[in-house]
Design brief:
This protein is an all-alpha fold and 417 residues long. It is 56% helix and 2% strand. The protein has three domains: 3-107; 120-216, DNA polymerase, domain 1; 235-405, Orthogonal Bundle (hpI Integrase, Chain A). It is globular and about 95 Å long.
Length: 417
């Protein structure tokens, strides 16, 4: 037996001898079920074995394994590790492997769930989050932004003490807003601070608190509505983008289908990510949107080009999986749904391949709206396709409606017409 094989036997013995040894099979099954490659499974097992040896030498009981002990291993032991047989000290790989280990141990009931912060501010934020979710119907991303801003105010004012809204004065609010506004370069960013705080104070008013003075202490920065034109792709740039999607690169069919959903249907990134196989009626040629920003169920016609792009992806490239999401991961955990961030990354990469100087995925939604207007659709029809709750939201596109603008244009003074 050579040195490498002998080292591997020693590593397996350390794994089995440690307190996590009884969960080794569950750990390997956890990785295999998520379709991690064989070499990745082997690497993660070796890194968990390294951790197992460390907890054995420290005589750490199973119940004491948590994020804290993992952090000590990564921060203190790994940089200066001299363990025999462990030549790879990659922190990222060890951190990923041990993250999976904690998931498995908690699923097996072997260690406690992570503690939930119970400070008065955290409890207040949890209650307000439930209100925003169930009463106001805000999307998760919007709630996260609001909680971050409100949490800063409450943490600054109360720290670990009980939340007493009566102790917040208009001067506290004005000073806090000035500090937060300085972090934003555009009025819209500072405006989000105002809307977040006003929404919270109105929530407290519904509970009987006297906060009218706090609401009045906030005013939106000057930011003229509809003052700018929505950016869009020209027809030449659209053709350039679509043409670049024929490149037979890895994951290109998925990229093509994603770009088509944003360009032809005007879907937001989160809406593309949450599309399901059950949402498409191939016979009727429609697609149902169930997870929209407005929490409505909308049915849209499925353009032929979009349907063909999705069908090619499903038939030729999508990994085999029991998951019903249309767009899934190509790498481990393979076959699980992708998120909105990957949708945005995919669209940015499509821009780059096409040689276009853009980065925002929402640009495709603006482009679709402009193409509808150019083809003769009314603003109401554009609003319906974009699924805007208010027609005022769609009014920004009125500046792009050259057909209607030409009809109301007055002749230039002194001209013949």
């Amino acid at each position: 037996m050579d040195t490498a094989q002998h080292s591997r036997v020693i590593e397996v013995d350390w794994f089995a001898a440690s307190s996590i040894g009884p969960h080794a099979v569950a750990f390997k099954n956890h990785l295999t079920e998520r379709m991690y490659a064989a070499h990745t499974v082997s690497s993660y097992v070796a890194e968990v074995t390294h951790f197992a040896r460390w907890i054995c030498t420290r005589r750490l009981p199973l119940a004491r394994i948590d994020e804290v002990s993992v952090g000590i291993f990564l921060d203190d032991h790994l940089p200066s590790c001299a363990c025999t047989g462990h030549t790879r000290h990659d922190r990222a790989d060890h951190s990923a492997a041990l993250g999976h280990l904690l998931v498995v141990l908690r699923a097996q009931g072997a260690i406690a769930q992570p503690p939930v912060s119970m400070t008065p501010v955290d409890e207040e934020l949890r209650r307000y989050d439930e209100h925003m979710d169930h009463v106001r119907g805000l999307a998760p991303k919007s709630r996260t932004m609001v909680l971050r801003i409100v949490g800063r105010l409450l943490a600054e004012r109360f720290d670990g003490n009980p939340v007493d809204i009566a102790a917040i004065t208009p001067e506290h609010v004005r000073r806090f807003f000035a500090e937060q506004a300085a972090l934003h370069s555009k009025p819209a960013g500072a405006g989000s601070v105002v809307s977040s705080l006003r929404g919270y104070f109105r929530y407290r008013a519904s509970l009987g608190d006297l906060v009218h003075g706090l609401v009045g202490a906030l005013s939106y920065p000057a930011n003229w509505a509809l003052s700018s034109l929505p950016k869009k792709l020209t027809d030449e740039e659209v053709a350039q983008l679509v043409g670049s999607l024929n490149n037979p690169c890895r994951a290109m069919r998925r990229a093509c289908a994603i770009v088509r959903c944003a360009l032809d249907l005007g879907l937001r990134s989160i809406e593309v990510a949450q599309l399901s196989l059950d949402d498409i009626d191939w016979h009727a040629g429609t697609i149902t949107l169930r997870h929209t920003k407005g929490r409505r169920v909308d049915i849209l016609p499925l353009p032929v080009a979009t349907g063909e792009a999705i069908a090619k992806y499903l038939e030729l490239e999508r990994p085999k999986t029991s998951n019903r999401a249309i767009f899934v991961r190509n790498v481990a955990p393979r076959g699980t749904p992708i998120g909105a961030d990957l949708i945005r990354i995919t669209i940015r990469q499509a821009y780059a391949r096409a040689g276009l100087p853009y980065t925002r995925s929402h640009l495709l939604r603006h482009t679709m709206a402009n193409r509808l207007l150019a083809s003769g659709s009314s603003l109401k029809e554009v609003a319906d396709v974009l699924r805007h709750r208010s027609l005022n939201t769609t009014m920004i596109y009125a500046k792009l409606d050259s057909r209607s603008l030409a009809a109301v244009a007055l002749p230039w003074p002194g001209s013949a017409s």
